[in-house]
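Assemble and predict.
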Amino acid sequence: MSPRAQTAAQLISGAIAMGYAVIGLFFLRFWRETRDRLFAAFAVAFWVLGLQRVLLSLAAGAEEESRAAFYLLRLGAFALILIAILDKNRARKA
Amino acid sequence: MAAVVYVLCALTSLACAVLLLRSYRRRPVGLLLWSGLGFIGFALGNALLVVDLLMVPQVDLSLLRSLPVLAGIGVLLYGLVWGSR
Amino acid sequence: MTRGLPPDLDRFLARYIDTVEQLEVLLLLHQGRDEEWTAERAARALYSQPGSIARRLASLAAHGFLEPTGAGPAYRYAPRDKELAETVSQLARTYRERRVAVITAIASRPMENVRAFSDAFRVRRKTEDE
């Protein structure tokens, strides 16, 4: 990648990480106001995604996303979302 | 192995999008539309990740696949900021 | 926040009370707190359908306001802690004095759109309010 493209990539990556963090904050607020567990799960999930982005950028040779730690983090985040959805449907449907 | 994870992530995002957009059709709450579209962006980003890893390893799609994610985030944030009274 | 109602009532309503019907069931059992109530009996008192009243009773019991009392199913008012009991009493008083304010608070709850987001993830729909 040309240096300019690399800078663009890092800029976008930073924006994405920040975006995830802010989204997580919104879900945190929703959880506090509704006490709905789903929002807590989404908040944590998005923060983990943000963390993954940041770690990915900081790691050397950052193009290889097949590194175990990174995809485990991502898996964890989405697994949490899936668990939240299952939990919502398992609980009493009143 | 990584590809399996990313396929799962793409499918989960897609499931979220489908649930949100389906709900939007019944109850037109803006937040549902924007968050549904946002999750489509995430699904697309993960799908492109799989493509990048498996199908076109010689080409680096990292810039391209960030774009739907960024768009998804933008759209989701828009919905959250304006739609969460 | 709805103008007028104290914040703890607002929070209570937001957390536990979805509809006016649910509020009325809760207050009915609170008022007749030493008695057992079946869905049929409560429905008659409220001029409503036993089916939906039964769901409300089950939901209130799950949240810790009522306890089941043997076959029926029948319920008795039995809040799980003092704080809850006091809030319900306060709510009952407020509902008597300022009915419109309470109903408005239930109907136009803050975070309504946010709740819609969460509800979207129920794969099978709630049948009551669609």
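The CA atoms of residues 45 and 63 of chain B lie 10 Å apart.
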